[in-house]
Amino acid sequence: MNTLTHAEPRTRRRPHRIRRTAVAALALAALTALTSCTPDTVAPADERARAHEAGGDGKPGARVKLAGGEVDCAVAKCIALTFDGGPGKDTPALLDLLKREEVPATFFLLGRKHIEKYPETVRRIAKEGHEVANHTWNHPRLTEIEPDEIREELTRTQKEIARLTGSEPTLMRPPQGRTDDTVSGISKELGLSQVLWSTTAKDYSTNDSGLITERTLDQAGRDGVILLHDIYKGTVPAVPGIIHALKKDGYTFVTVPQLMAPAKPVPGTIYRP
């Protein structure tokens, strides 16, 4: 029972932003076809709301600390910027930008040829306050391999990230968004929550930074999760325009765990806005 590919469509539309693109329309059709076989998912905003209700403290949510101050995503327009498949050669330049703009991000790191090739970048991502997460070692479709192989893909990445940063990730993103009950069970066993997305620029299919920016802004919405890849030529040059446009539109960037606060991600749960 598979879920989403990186053609995962938007779930909401930003009014008065950019015209709806043809790719978004095609992605919406793909979602309709997949709906019947998608495992249960939880929206980060719903997890946040449930934690507030359970706490009974009378507060809208929880304020989380950012470089530029504090934010409560139950009140503010929050959005999470996430990057898959790195680190890569352009990741340091991306980190420079994120630091200048005081934007935290969530990095789903890939082991083979990435974590093992750029260990200092992994350390830097963690040191600069970004969320370090697991994207497997070899990027297989987890729904097409044996349980022991799934466990090895995730465990090897966990251990290497822990060796470099001092702590194991609590989040993982299954390659191509493909997950099922077996993947969820192993993720729970390893203390990992799964994080899907609401916005994809399909940046693996184009080097056109302008198109990547347009697709991202067209799909972005409150409490959303943006999927980009810091390993493709056109992506990092697109990020400044994405950040500036969303800030101008009133968005605050947070990590995925910050988007859920005061809740904490639950191992085994599949989160998708």
From TrEMBL:
Signal sequence annotation: 1-35
Domain NodB homology: 77-254
Pfam families: Polysacc_deac_1
InterPro entries: Glyco_hydro/deAcase_b/a-brl, NODB_dom, Polysacc_deacetylase_ArnD
Highest rank taxon of the organism: Bacteria
Molecular function as annotated in GO: hydrolase activity, acting on carbon-nitrogen (but not peptide) bonds; metal ion binding
Keyword line: Hydrolase, Metal-binding, Signal
GO CC annotations, alphabetized: membrane
Record CDD domains: CE4_NodB_like_6s_7s (cd10917)
Biological process according to GO: carbohydrate metabolic process
Coiled-coil ranges from the UniProt annotation: none
Record's protein name: Polysaccharide deacetylase family protein
